[in-house]
Description:
The chain has 119 residues and is mostly beta strands. It has strands spanning 3-7, 10-12, 18-25, 34-40, 44-51, 57-59, 67-72, 77-82, 91-96, 113-117.
Amino acid sequence: QVQLVESGGGLVQPGGSLKLSCAASGFTLNAYPIGWFRQTPGKGTEAVSCVSTSGSTIYSNSVKGRFTISRDNDKNTVYLQMTMLKPADTAVYFCATACTVVALEGAYRGQGTQVTVSS
């Protein structure tokens, strides 16, 4: 059974850090580009970061310099290290076998994990 499961979300104060994990089962993660996305009721779905099968990475302007995406092929897991968090980063974060919102159609995706940045 193909599955992506996110973990690591929670409540953190502004300026704090969190590390999200995206664990895959039923398929080999490094055969796909893997993207992190976030959803909020007001802003919809935003592509945050992506790591290609070759390991190259891209970031949205809103998180560049603060977030780092990485993959551990041995653990079949992709991570998103988030630092200097802001209240505007509050969202449900999910991973998918896609790098753009358009490409989410037909991609594998997880259920998401809530990140709340608040004092």
